[in-house]
Amino acid sequence: MIRRLFRALVTALACLGFLMALVTVAPPRWYASVLAGPWPVPHGEVLIVLGGDVNDNGVLGETSYWRSVFGVTAWRNGSWRQVILSGELNTTAPMRDFLVSQGVPASAIAIEGRSKTTRENALNTAQFLRNIPGPYVLLTSDYHMFRAHRAFTKAGLTVTPAPFSDVLKAFHDPVRRWTGFITLVSETGKIAWYWVRGWI
């Protein structure tokens, strides 16, 4: 019995070691690219930026920060009428402050501040935009776009996806590749859950 447990432990550790080496040497960029989908230049009139995380002190977390950065980039490179920030208020308010600090007019930013999940992002934003004409462009992380785009479509809101390099960027740094891989594994579980629930 003890020998079997020892062999099982050795096998599990060997598999884990192999997986870590594989992810470090050859991270699954192809899978992140599949989740991101096409990479069009974002053009539209209403830019929807999804919130991510926030630190305990109210400062933007890494995901929200990069979504804000690329929201600013999209604003500068386009001719947008409005930016919609969708997510919990404690996340979207700091995102708004960041956008304003980078030159996006406060009058052009609206917050949908009730959503705690991607499904709520889709449902609440669709309701929020009932009287705001499009076309709409959805900006979020590369790994998140597959689920987010389909959730918005399911909610009845037609959006053009505009992913940006998030996990793919992490894969350029060998130190961060394992974190990026875990993000993809987590997102795959969320996609499966949304599919089972009929939310995408």
Summarize the structure.
With about 200 residues, the protein is an alpha/beta fold.
How would you characterize this protein structure?
- It is built from eight helices and five strands.
- With 200 residues, it is α/β, with parallel strands linked by helices.
- It has a domain at 41-165: Rossmann fold (3-Layer(aba) Sandwich).
- Strands 3-2-1-4-5 form a five-stranded parallel beta sheet, with helices on both faces.
- Helix 5 crosses helix 6 (142-154).
- 36% of the residues are buried.
Can you tag this structure with a few keywords?
single chain, 200 residues, 5 strands
CATH architecture title of the domain at 41-165 = 3-Layer(aba) Sandwich
Task: Give the C-alpha Rg.
Answer: 19 Å
CATH topology tier name of the domain at 41-165? Rossmann fold
Helices and strands, in N-to-C order? Answer: HHEHEHEHEHEHH
- State the helix count: 8
Q: What would CATH call the homologous superfamily of the domain at 41-165? A: HUPs
Number of strands: 5
Structural class label: alpha/beta
State the end-to-end CA separation.
46 Å
Summed over residues and divided by their number, the pLDDT gives a mean of: 86
**CATH top level assignment of the domain at 41-165:** Alpha Beta
Q: Classify the helix fraction into a percent range.
A: 55-70%
**Low-pLDDT stretches:** none
The percentage of residues in β strands lies in 5-15%
Strands of the biggest beta sheet: in what spatial order? 3-2-1-4-5
Give the biggest beta sheet.
5 strands, parallel
Q: What is the approximate shape?
A: globular
